[in-house]
Amino acid sequence: MDYKPVPTVVAAAPFDAAADAQTLRAAMKGLGTDEQEIIDVLAGRSNGQRQLIRAVYDAEFERDLVDDLKSELGGKFEDVIVAMMLPPVEYLCKQLHSAMAGMGTEEGTLVEILCTKSNEEMHQIVEAYEDKYQRPLAEQMCSETSGFFRRLLTLIVTGVRDGLNTPVNADEAKEQANQLYAAGEAKLGTDEEVFNRIMSHASFPQLRLVFEEYKELSGQTIEQAIKHEMSDELHEAMMAIVECVQSPAAFFANRLYKAMNGAGTDDSTLIRIIVCRSEIDLETIKLEFERIYNRTLLSAVVDAETSGDYKRALTALLGAA
Fold first, then answer.
1. Residue 219 and residue 217: Cα distance in Å, rounded?
2. CA-CA to 314 of 20 to 30 Å: which in 42, 177, 186, 243?
3. More confident residue, 102 or 280
4. What is the pLDDT of residues 154-204, one digit of tens each?
5. Angular region, 64: left φ>0, alpha ψ -120 to 50, beta rest
6. Cβ proximity of 184 and 228 under 8 Å
């Protein structure tokens, strides 16, 4: 299946960074803040354009746009706007760092960010992380995770996955499917190391072929095998890889549903996915969300525990007028 990513946010044309910088300054100057104006400008521009606006704003007013936004805004609304203003890789590094800071580790955040990336994307994150925090991502992650889960994430972070340019190999896929079968269903207990090796080394297009071969061989889907053979964080990480290989939109639609379902809203996940995927495949995620849950993502966000400018910013990124 060819995945067709469709964004909700694209570069504005025509675009005038100087005019946008003036509009934002006016929205924050004097008494009160015009939050709607801020949403209209920033949600209607690509991240690259927001960086240009920030540079012009800095040159024109000798002030940092992000600092001004932080001082004028608050709460979850501030979180969304600041997320939109950071370059995507820098934002993901901050999210990874905060997932590992303090007591406990947010394993779900690590899985969502690390298990869904191509090798090329992973290289950028690893480089930017060490640049920003003066500590290798793999090293910090090793101190915050354990067991086969730590081993899988370490393999992913160290960049062992084949690149997207690596041609798929049908014979190798058959062999890899055989290895997975022998390591799981065909024996007592599970050889997690084999699962880790294949799931972290093969490119996503190659894995798609492996999963087809696995079903042919065993009569079971790879998801069923993982459900039987794995538990806890390792299970979550393996399932994330499988879902992203088959349909990234379904993976993120499910994450969004869980973030809004039940008591309270997981705002950081909601913000991260909507902001990060808005220029990649948020339109595709919206379609998938409606297909799976029989309601629009927009209506789910509106009905979730979001309100005011925070809700307006999220719905603007979803493409609501």
1. 6
2. 243
3. 280
4. 999 998 899 888 899 999 999 999 999 998 876 666 788 999 999 999 999
5. beta
6. yes
